[in-house]
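Fold this sequence, please.
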Amino acid sequence: MATEGREKRNFGLINEKGEEIGTFSGAQPRDAALKVANRGITSIVLREKGTKKLHYFVGKRELVAVPKNAPAWIQDAAKKNKGKIFKANVEKIGTAQLQFVKLERNDKSFFKIPKKAGEKKGKK
């Protein structure tokens, strides 16, 4: 993969109350978001550790058939789910800069997923 030479970064998963509830690592924020989505979390707010930067994602996971060229350990794991595995998918909504490094000092609206640009209020 393209991430072999890159240094991994740590991202804190933030809930809507502004509390950090987990740490995930990846070369890119998307890598960490995929790990979060694979646990079944759909509204993903990640703070890049050591910075004030927030990354917003919407994620999902779905059961898909195992590819024919999948490694043996994946095929073994899929036998428990009738030959299917969970596959995560995320969409980046945007980024934001926190005012303060300490999470509790920031406005709580930072920790909610912003509406997509083309989305109207009240409709999904």
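Residues 9-60+91-102 form one domain. Residues 120-124 have pLDDT under 50 and may be disordered.
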